[in-house]
Amino acid sequence: MTDSERYNYAFDPDGDDWAARLIRQVPGGASVLELGPGPGAMTRVLLDRGHAVTVVENDPDAVATLKTMGAEVLQGDLNALGWSEQLRGRQFDAVLACDVLEHLNEPEATLNALRGLAKPSARIVISMPNVAYAGLIAGLQLGQFEYAATGLLDRTHVRFFTRNSLIKALMACGWAPEHWEGYRVPIEQSEFVWHWKQLGNEQRQALVSGFVDFDVYEWMVVA
After folding, report:
1. Angle at the Cα of 218 from the Cα atoms of 52 and 140, rounded to 5 degrees
2. Which end of the chain has fewer surrounding CB within 10 Å, N or C?
């Protein structure tokens, strides 16, 4: 499976799918800078809704697909900030960085660069895997931390965040978090189900007791 295929998915833009919830945070008529859109599942919806969309993507197959949609496409590696130099002097109403920052060696450098590309009233919409997910912690209690092709421990993830650590990173880079939503996945329906079942009942209860966000698989933050 190529990266382009892995991030190509369909969703109801007017429904309650996670991607639809993310896109709803983009104001009507906004000019949008979208980072790492893959083959453009969300890009297509934004264009259909009349947004002017500029994307930064490195995968050649995804770039070819995006160019057929009518988006402005910059082919560039987000781990190298040369892409931001190509946009010097421009500013956008909204930035989408959905399932992107966890793939970067220095996400803070990207967050800093984006400040110069955002209008004073602009918002950034971020989605980010939650490393404090109770299923992942269950695996740690069993000494398991195994990377996989997809999921929270996708082998291309190089940085991990909790809600609190993401708040600190955003504020250190000049972004003020204003809105949070959680994508909740029952642990029994996650890739960590077998780890969860291996724990004793008291261990499972300790992981969920008093921790209201134990089942948040991914966070959305609007800053």
Report:
1. 150
2. N
